[in-house]
Amino acid sequence: MNIVFRRALCATSALAGMVLATSAMAQSTGTAVVEELVVTGQATRSLDGMVAVEEPKARSTISQEFISTQTPGATVLDTINLLPGVNFTGNDAFGSAGGDITLRGFDSQRIALIQDGIPLNDSGNYAVYPNQQLDGDLIEKVDVNLGTTDVDSPTAAAAGGTINYITRKPQDEFGARFDLGVGSENFRRIYGVIETGKVGPWGTKAWASYNRATNDIFNAPGKIDKTQYNARIYQELGDNGDFVSLIANYNVNRNNFIRRITLAQFQQGVKLPYDAACARPTPVAGTIQNEATSATGFTAACANYVGNNINPSNTGNLRGQSLFHLTDNLVLTIDPAFQYVIANGGGRTIMPENDPQLRSPTDLNGDGDTIDRVLVYWPNTTNTRRYTVNSSLIWKFADGQSLRASYTYDYARHRQTGQASLFSAGGDPGNVFGGKDGYGQAIKLSDGSILRRRDRQSFATLNQIAVEYRGRFLEDKVLVNLGARAPFFKRELNQNCYMRDTFNAYCTNQVGTVVVGSNDGAGVPFVTFPAGSQVPSAATLWGQPRKIERKYDKVLPNVGVSYDIGDHEQVYLSYAQTLSAPRTDDLYDRNVVNPQPEVADAYNLGWRWTSPTLLVSVDAWTNNFKNRVERQFDEAAGIFYSVNVGEVKLKGVDAQLSYKPEDYLSFYTSLSYVQSEIQSNFPNGAGGAILPTKGKSLYEVPKLQGATRVNWDITDWASLGVQGKFVGSRWTNLTNTEKAPGYALWDLDLRFKLDDIGMEKAYLQFNVKNLFDEKYLADISTNTNGTAQFQPGYPRAFVATLHAEF
């Protein structure tokens, strides 16, 4: 929470047991050290987990105390949903099915998600994957920077701000924590963590955890299955705060998608579950088996079968952290990391056995002929290996003053392939990763190649330097933060297939027919191919395989000043410039494009009031967002393309209040107002057509939203929490012709401590999500014009959890 506790309050506060060490209050080890240096002697406190922090910027924070009240297993992005400016829409009530998030009108691809100082966004399209995040019990706290970054934030995609969360340190004593959970939709969860305590001659400490959660999809059929392993080892070096640490994470998700609906279907009460079974024809030699339903033969008969509407992922990382005092006043921090990802969103196609892409007639269904149209598993699989180092050298040259120099290196090998494979007789893929090497069986062609829908590889390299000065003046009433980061970002892209646009490729060893006189913008002619399942027409123009290199760099200032009016009151002013470099999807076009990076100038003016029982903050802000890139569809050409829609102006107010009148009772509320305005119309396909977007608002952004929570310790052994999230109506496109209705979701948590029956540190917790069974629309598949598809909101859900510690 954006509140400052002054030194005079530290000795008098009655909120015992809610103190957090200041060294745990920042995203990277370097930022933690810097923020601690200028507040030495102070404590950072919270009211039931809503944390008061002292930073001259718009930041909100929650701690483990609050996280533990939320549904066990919930994604960390759901736990911050009460904070101002944040809107998270979960795909289910349990945290394993994904969802979407916005900050102050910026979508998830323009927000940097950072864990222990390491970037987690997809290195290609900057997507955020909520269901792959660290289990909440292992998270110490979460910082949300609204419209700004920390000066060392290792990201090339942070126009809207950052979400930073910190992993728990191991405990000093041996122990364990366990959760057993059951709930609606056949929800089952088992979680456990073992703490070694300090062991060995150097007092090394560590923990290791296991988490498995499964549930049915609420509009069945379909299942969600998540397994996660985590471990951390921590070694203190001396007694001055030096340490080295290594954290490991591995997450496996096997999810079925939840079928989307239109606004009209929602209003009519229509539900669209996926089909529970797939009826494929039995292969018979000499007889045509056609597994298509449309006249053209491109639509799969089993397109709505739940078994091939899947979203599998395997993700993992190793994160190192270290701090070394080179002298009493000179500190070096180094945080290295490695990340691994393999994932796709399923997919299928109908492949004629005489399709030109096969190079020669091929018996795909094994019936001895080549006259059929066969259902083929057709996924877009992404495989990423990523290496990161975030380091800082910090010099405390006077009391309350420090200077920092930081360097970040981030390198990602982003391989995107689409090796086809065959389905079983029941319509299930032989392997969820298709014919990807080391996984399933690829379909091999007569020329030695394999059948695939995509084949491209990119290398994203970020070299970033940053400097920061922080100091206190006027008897510590003024805090000044002057910084700048300079990212040097490069994308090397290799497109190995022919392409209609970034989403439609044709991977073949065929020789295309050159279209004389055509030009893709770089002096290379287009080609055509004979019509087939992936070639709608012999007249379709295809861009040729190519290599592209793009570089983006900019100096981004990050400054802030705060002034303590008295022991309880503070004002602050900040300015930050942020950058989002183009995504790979905006570069892999048929026509050569070079979109400019999106840049935002964020200004904040804030006021804070703090007392031992009352925390209040109000933040007025404006954001000038330039070079916004959108995907457009050219109906005449049948292709998608990138377009720079220019400038978008955003402004708003965020407010929050936390009040604890008694030790057993607390209240929290937040309110956010956002106004966005697109500054120009922009092109819509060929022929000079335009979309009337000037003066319109951004999609998926509620103009008004708010949240509230009440905590009541009913007795020494029972506590109750009730919270609500209110979301206003949201436009679904940039022409503002369709709007999703607003909604309100209420949740409840009830905890019973079991100490009185001999189970010390154990409790039974009940969580209810969507308490009043609100019917609403959650995540929106937005577009620039026309109607949208929606994730149906989850119904009321119950979870009971038995938690035990020793």
TrEMBL record:
This is TonB-dependent receptor. It holds the Pfam family Plug. Keywords: Cell outer membrane, Ion transport, Iron, Iron transport, Membrane, Receptor, Signal, TonB box, Transmembrane, Transmembrane beta strand, Transport. It comes from Phenylobacterium conjunctum. InterPro entries: Beta-barrel_TonB (IPR000531), Beta-barrel_TonB_sf (IPR036942), Plug_dom (IPR012910), Plug_dom_sf (IPR037066), TonB-dep_rcpt-like (IPR039426), TonB_rcpt_CS (IPR010917). Residues 363-771 form the TonB-dependent receptor-like beta-barrel domain. It is a multi-pass membrane protein. A motif (TonB C-terminal box) lies at residues 789-806. Residues 1-26 form the signal peptide. It is found in: Cell outer membrane. Residues 54-160 form the TonB-dependent receptor plug domain.
